[in-house]
What we know:
By secondary structure, this protein is of the alpha+beta class. The chain folds into two domains: 3-112, Aminopeptidase, CATH 3.40.630; 143-281, Gcn5-related N-acetyltransferase (GNAT) (Aminopeptidase, 3-Layer(aba) Sandwich), CATH 3.40.630. It has seven helices and twelve strands. Strands 1-2-3-4-5-12-6-11-10-9-8-7 form a twelve-stranded mixed β-sheet, with helices on both faces. The protein is elongated.
Amino acid sequence: MKIEYRNLSKTSFGELHQTFNEAFSDYLIDISYMTRDVMKNRAIKNGYDPDSSVGVFDNDKLVGFTLVGVDYHYEKPSAFDIMTGLIKEYRGKGIASEMFNFIKPRLKAIGIEYFYLEVLQENKPAILAYKKTGFEIVRSLDCFTLSLKNYLLTEQPRLPIVIKKIEKDNIDKFQLFSEWRPSWENSFTAMKRVPDDIDFYSAEYSINKLGLIVYYPCLNWIMALLVNPEYRNMGIQSALLNHLVKQLEGKVEMVKLLNIQSDDENLIAFLKQSGFELLTGQYEMKYKL
């Protein structure tokens, strides 16, 4: 075994995806949707910086990697673990820690203050390892799926709203509608970086912006479901979701809505009433560089 750590500036997504398939063959969640192109587009969405990322090579074969995104999170220059994978026979040898140690000098050099990651709450060994490294839990996030056959329209809007498709250049004003900061994966800057199709639907009444729903077909994710605080409890949320479900009928059987802050009781209650089911829970964790 001849282990070497390098950044990923010269590593193709074809090579990364081949290693991904080996590394995630025993993952707790089905990741069969993650083709090479999906993996690449998701990385771009999350601000992928190959020079700040690391690959583990054994005699020039890629056996593990950490893809790192760079952006702002909580108003601070930050980095994000987009994806970490390590082929099974290389686990338990301290390689994951060495990958992180390899990344840190580069991140400090470009002014990064915090490193964030998301980890499944049932992955106790990983959480323990991250805590030993110096990570702390920031918040709990819930992930949901909706089988379209189980969808229920909960209420009708109480205003004569119009729902229309808008361009990504027109979404900034909707950021103020969120009661909590979206996760890195669902941030407005991530939406703007999406390299392929992404759908934005705005609910409007006269000149007023009432809400927004964002759907990313590549990942089959609802990235945002936001309502103007002045118009909550008026059926706007339900109307936006209903509009999207109608657009998806005959195209997909289910849709995901990930990383809802676990203490948002109103949104979670609405999702469950609409037919969503809890898929899993994650922790957002951070490390101060």
